[in-house]
UniProtKB/TrEMBL annotation:
Residues 24-361 form the Isopropylmalate dehydrogenase-like domain. Transmembrane segments: none annotated. The keyword Magnesium applies. GO terms for biological process: isocitrate metabolic process; lysine biosynthetic process; tricarboxylic acid cycle. Keywords: Magnesium. One of its GO terms (molecular function) is homoisocitrate dehydrogenase activity. The keyword Magnesium applies. One of its GO terms (cellular component) is mitochondrion. This is Isopropylmalate dehydrogenase-like domain-containing protein. PANTHER family: DECARBOXYLATING DEHYDROGENASES-ISOCITRATE, ISOPROPYLMALATE, TARTRATE (PTHR11835), HOMOISOCITRATE DEHYDROGENASE, MITOCHONDRIAL (PTHR11835:SF48). Belongs to the isocitrate and isopropylmalate dehydrogenases family. Pfam families: Iso_dh.
Length: 365
């Protein structure tokens, strides 16, 4: 299961935290409901007591609202504090505009690059009882976090057919290899032991072809470590179709940045809400939890945002750092609240407030 595999992955990366007396956690609520769900995750972590080093929460700023106030979406001070003072971080949500705004670029994309958080690990798991005809979901999307179209190299010009827009897509052997290794490591500790490479190399034979070939080559240099892991492939369009037909076909899905983003959001629909799905942005030396949902400006400030994705992201973050006992307590509390259904926000059919769900979880922690 993912809980065990993240712990194993942490051990493999030698992120030793055994001697720590405090845990410095950067908090970046950013925009919209991030200001409500990051405090929820903070409360869950604080409820753990002695199962983790004493948490010290460091508030930091970033986001579109920061940009409108200061002209900078990701202040250099935020990056410096994360690098020099923090052991890990939690990021809320960002309200990136759909139209071009001169001088603005997404701070979460920039943070992933600045901290070399090359893997976005997004587990999607059914917890609440599902109708008999609905397949249970237990899969992980492993999304390459630093390349693809998200390098944001776009140009526009006038041509014979009017305005033209072009975007550069970057896929490298190095990035593809290390995201492939992340996927295989996760698969080693899951029951199905299966990695599905998502690509579109029948059309994008150079870029997706390199991604596909490089990920397939990962076991060849691992001296038999991944011999028990089955390797499958799926074109991204048919993967979406199969995902909705029967998600049980998938275990660990590894994909370039754009495909992974779309697939993980689509998979969230299978378990009821984006508000339930967590993620971590992981590198070799730092980890940042991030709920999958967006800033949800339509409900921001109404105290009805689902805090579960943020709280689960905090658990994933702690687990990746080696604090399995604390992460287990958070996960168990969330599972109980979801299964019982007494406290649930409107996105999953309930009538509870954000704080009521948080209080129910922290009581169980």
């Amino acid at each position: 299961m993912l809980r065990q595999s993240l712990l194993q992955l942490k051990a493999a990366r030698s992120m030793s935290t055994a001697t720590k007396t405090s845990l410095k956690i950067g908090l970046i609520p950013a925009d919209g409901v991030g200001k409500e769900v990051i405090p929820a995750a903070q409360q869950a972590i604080a409820a753990l007591g002695s199962d983790i080093p004493k948490p010290e929460f460091i508030p930091l700023i970033a986001g579109f609202e920061t940009f409108t106030r200061t002209g900078v979406a990701l202040p250099e001070e935020t990056v410096q504090i994360l690098k020099e003072e923090c052991d890990c971080a939690l990021f809320g949500s960002v309200s990136s505009p759909s139209k071009k705004v001169v001088g603005y670029s997404s701070p979460i994309v920039a943070l992933r690059k600045e901290l070399d958080l090359y893997a976005n690990v997004r587990p999607v798991l059914s917890v609440a009882p599902t109708p008999e005809e609905t397949p249970a979901v237990d899969l992980v999307v492993v999304r390459e976090n630093t390349e693809c179209l998200y390098i944001k190299q776009e140009q526009s010009s006038n041509g014979p057919n009017g305005r033209e827009a072009r975007a550069t897509r970057l896929i490298t052997e190095r990035a593809s290899s290390r995201i492939g290794k992340m996927a295989f490591e996760l698969a080693l500790h899951r029951p199905a032991k299966q990695v599905t490479i998502i690509h579109k190399s029948n059309v994008l034979s150079v870029t997706d072809g390199l991604f596909r070939e490089t990920v397939r080559a990962v076991p060849l240099g691992a001296e038999g470590r991944y011999d028990g892991v089955k390797i499958l492939e799926q074109l991204v369009d048919s993967a979406v179709y199969k995902l909705f037909r029967d998600p049980r076909e998938f275990d660990v899905m590894v994909a370039p940045n754009l495909y992974g983003d779309i697939l993980s959001d689509a998979a969230a629909a299978l378990v009821g809400s984006l508000g339930l799905v967590p993620s971590v942005n992981a590198g070799d030396n730092f980890v940042m939890g991030e709920p999958v949902h967006g800033s949800a400006p339509d409900i921001a400030g109404k105290n009805i945002a689902n805090p579960i994705a943020s709280i689960r992201s905090a658990a994933l973050m702690l687990r990746h750092m080696g604090y399995a006992k604390g992460a287990d307590r958070i996960d168990a509390a969330v599972d109980t609240v979801v299964r019982e259904g007494q406290f649930a926000t409107p996105d999953v059919g309930g009538k509870s407030t954000t704080q009521e769900v948080v209080d129910a979880i922290t009581r169980l922690i």
